[in-house]
Amino acid sequence: MTLQPSPSPSSPASPATSPPAEATAPATALFAPWSPSFVQDPYPAYAALRAAGRAHRFDPTDQWLVPHYDDVSALLRDRRLGRTYLHRFSHEEFGRQAPPPAHEPFTTLNGNGMLDLEAPVHTRIRRLVAKAFTPRMVDDLAPTVHRLAAELIAALRADGGGDLLARVAEPLPVAVIAEMLGVPPADRALLRPWSAAITGMFELNPSEETARLAVRASEEFSDYLRGLIATRRRAPGEDLISALIAAHDDGDVLSEQEMISTCVLLLNAGHEATVNTTTLGWLQLFRHPDQLRLLSDATAGTSAGASAGDELLGGAVEEMLRYDTPLQLFERWVLDDIEIGGTTIPRGSEVALLFGSANRDPARFPDPDRFDITRPAAGNKHVTFGAGIHFCLGAPLARLELTASFGTFLREAPGMRLVEEPAWRPGYVIRGPEQLLVTW
Fold it and tell me: How far is CA 68 from the centre of its chain?
């Protein structure tokens, strides 16, 4: 999954060239990311944006909203846009202000993660990280993922139910990533609060209080990882940090800061997406009992063979990722003038690629507002994990965690039901319910 700090009133200034607003006020008026009702269901507003055009000026965040699948998919691959602009311009040349000094060390931590870098630095870091974070490492984690999922789900069922978010959705990916990084069990409770504080900066127009919490978490997490890296240099293990230390390419190695930023990115991006896909996915299954019954029967092997059940489960996870996208918006800087649907968006602007809207675009997905776990894989090429050089490196791990979690629930603890419709967290970019109360 992909993240980037959003603009705030105290950081980026207006673009050097400020284009006039389009005559799409009725559509943009429906885009209300600070409204609880919008956060709960943004999809009618997305439909209005798609019907009104291909690019819409949104003044409250000083961005251009891009709602169509084809445009989002193309712009994710377009090198005229970037996650950063500093590989080509200074802040002054780009018409932006440098991040406030008070936002350190968050700025350094985030700025050295490969998600927010462009070639050639991004290429170099991703190549080195890929030597450590291999498909085999993910495959080797599978027994651990299944064991952890089974333990968490058994405990929830033994209690007769509770908050699925707090009892399974959150602890599972944290435990898996901690296991992968080699974080001792006694320290793992630190990871989730650090992640939540840091990712608060990825919401639209974060407050200075949000920035303060992110700065403190960045400092504490960085210091913790610095100590863990030092320990692994003295005594390497079988964990990812040891592999990152050992990764080399013609004598090139990752710096300590690059390793720290990579570890934090893996926790924040992968963890937040998996947590919200778990809760959003279950919420949709509860709201669509025919789909839940179909998946339960297939997974339990009562209406299909094991391989067919696994195939349907994999397709169901992809439909969950498409239908109610955990990361709704992805931002890119415009490095050279671009044109979208006859509208010129000048260099120095920022575009907000609306993943949630793209994944419901009827031009790409037949009957997109229908939750259908049998949707053919060939026709379900959602953009939830991004595209291009910034395609989510942790996508295979996220899919492993999700299939393990949902499969274990369906096989080992069937009959789970929703107690009540949940309230929603206020965040829009990283979107999900505050809790998900279930029972048997």
Answer: 19
Taking the C-alpha atoms of residue 329 and residue 355, their distance in angstroms, rounded to an integer, is: 5
438: its two tokens? 């279930």
Model pLDDT for residues 320-377, shown as the tens digit of each residue: 999 999 999 999 999 999 999 999 999 999 999 999 999 999 999 999 999 999 999 8
Give the other-Cβ count within 10 Å of 406's Cβ. Answer: 23
- Which residue is it, tokens 């390419």? 249
- Residue pair 192/165 in contact by the 8 Å Cβ criterion: no
Q: What radius of gyration do the chain's Cα atoms show? A: 21
- What are the Cα distances from residue 214, in Å, to 86, 99, 107, 110, 210? 22, 14, 10, 11, 6
Rounded to whole angstroms, how far apart are CA atoms 252 and 243?
14
The angle subtended at Cα 252 by Cα 251 and Cα 255, nearest 5°, is 135
| Domain membership of residue 218 as a residue range | 25-439
- Residue 404 in domain: yes
Residues 6+ apart with CB under 8 A from 250: none
Structurally, the chain folds into a number of domains equal to 1
CATH number of the domain where residue 284 is located: 1.10.630.10
Tell me the pLDDT tens digit for each residue of 138-166.
Answer: 999 999 999 999 999 999 999 999 999 99
The pTM of the full predicted model, rounded to 2 decimals, is 0.90
The distance of Cα 316 from the centroid of its chain, to the nearest Å, equals: 18
Residue 15 lies in a domain: no
pLDDT category of residue 312 using cuts at 50, 70 and 90: very high
Whether the predicted pLDDT of 9 surpasses 60: no
> What pLDDT does 269 receive?
79
Within a domain: 246? yes
Contacts (Cβ under 8 Å, ≥6 apart) of 251 = none
Which residue in 38, 58, 106 sits closest to 431, CA to CA? 38
Q: What is the pLDDT of residue 268?
A: 87
Q: How far apart are CA 343 and CA 68, in angstroms?
A: 14
Direct distance between the N- and C-terminal alpha carbons of the chain, in angstroms, rounded to an integer:
32
Instruction: Taking residues 397-420, report their average pLDDT.
Output: 96
- Average pLDDT (195-213) is 93
Cα–Cα distance, 114 to 111 (Å, whole number): 8
Positive or negative torsion for Cα 238, 239, 242, 245: positive
Number of C-beta neighbours around residue 85 at 10 A:
22
Q: Token match 């490492």: residue?
A: 137
